[in-house]
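worker-03 picked up job from queue 'complexes'. Input manifest follows; two sequence lines, order preserved.
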Amino acid sequence: MRLRQGIVAQSIFFTAAAIVALSTAALLLFTGSRGLAVFGYMNPAEFFLSGSWNQNDENFGVLPLLAGSLLTVGLALLISGPLALGVSIFMVEIAPEPVRRVMRTVVELFAALPSVIYGLLGLTLVVPWVRESFGGGLGKGILAASIVLVFMTQPTIVSIAEDALRALPESLREGALAVGATRWQMIWRVLLPAARPGLITAVVLGTGRAVGETIAVQMVIGNITSRMPKSLLTGATTMPAAIVTQLPEATSPEHRAALIMVAFLLLVITFSLIAAVRAAGSRGKARPTTRRRPSPAAQTAAVKGGD
Amino acid sequence: MSEQTSGHRTLAVRESSARADAPAAIEARDFNFYYGDFRALEQITMLAPRHQITALIGPSGAGKSTLLRAMNRMHDETPGVSSDGQLLLEGADINGFSDLIDLRKRVGMIFQRPNPFPMSIFDNVAYGLRLKSQGAKKGVIAEQVEQALRGAAIWDEVKDKLQQSGLALSGGQQQRLCIARAIAVEPEVLLMDEPCAALDPIATLKIEELMGELEERYTIVIVTHNLQQAGRVSDQTVFLSMNPETRAGFVVEVGPTQQIFTNPKDDRTLAYISGRFG
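worker-03 finished. Artifact:
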């Protein structure tokens, strides 16, 4: 009986795991094969090196999309990373418990907001602010998208970074204080290095969120694909924003294939980020501070001492 | 180590040449300590003479660790604690130190579980030095690191791998590394909170031997649950117990270790000592 139950349970879990693995593989296979079909219409050099994506000319160069993604995400993380780190340090090391609880709720709320709300707030608050503060144009562009992404990535980075800092053993803090470190010196030189793998994971997952963000970015970036981004203030696009904007109106097979190829690149980037997280995680795997097992010599001594 | 010596050690009480009337490095007079409304220590009066090892012994809940941690104000991070009475470092009120950092440089601490920082062996020891004298020359730091590692009897084991992580060492080595880290800033007093609780017998023996050497330069106060250890290493013993009514820790008896272990004046001390010795 028991044995049969075990076999049934095992096969259920195995099937579940197989479904996930197979669908991931199918996803890659589908986007890969359909996307790579674009090279039947144009050569790879054109696709990867052309600085223009213009459906009217049937010219699909991915660079404006890549550059837009890179700039938007890079700028967002430049602000978001340090900000989130500061927030999580404040929450773990400085804020009294009631304040921390309120902040935690706010962070969770931020995480639960649908993208389209961020986009709406971006459109009604950030875009006009950019337009008025920096002048020129509509205000839609990389800067506006980055600012929206700063807020969108906060909950991801803060909650993971907070967990990483909270997981540090109390003994590390005491050890640093006991040699005469100030609280700041303790945080900067002991806690942050100790939590580094977790903090890297936090930032990388935040990056993943930013890279894949579609609707909110699409609403504030202006969606200009035909040329390389000229400045942070003028219209541009990102990879997912371009897909969601153009796919409904992509009638030619060439255009569709090019967009699916962009999706495939996006998948590859996301998988690489996950691989990076795993690498960071396994390198910094916390080792216990003491070895549980005494050395064989010590065991022998203990046995001898006992009789 | 042969089995004879280990058997012998178990019962040995240290022959101490230390004089009980040596000037006190740390002294408590009618010291009370509170967690909120709860009085954890009541009317503590004891002293830890300079360049001697003073052991705090007693059953769980007697407040040994609380007293030890009050000596370099590790409680400051805990909300709701307070104290009154006197706790003195070389005659100066420990709670009157305006500069907590200064106090902790003078009173170092070793914890129950070795807690090296996740950085290289060298940086672990240099950590306190760099805090103490920012912008110190590299050569000077390196020299002081070597001195501290020698002082903690671990230099020979780590001199070829100073750049390796401190976490890669064995438990006993980690604890000696922590001792090196503490003595690098040249404190006057070393507080040890059950420093061998997480170590195997051989590592424990090494730490105990090391304590005998450290005594020449530092005043040591050690909390231990291991009576044999208190007997082996300490010059003075403070026996604390818990008041059954108030649940506060108080001092039953203070004296030279030899006297406390062989001829205690208080019946409660005798009961505790003999209970453990069987």
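worker-03 released lock.
The first helix of chain B runs from residue 3 to 11.
The two ends of chain B are 25 Å apart (CA to CA).
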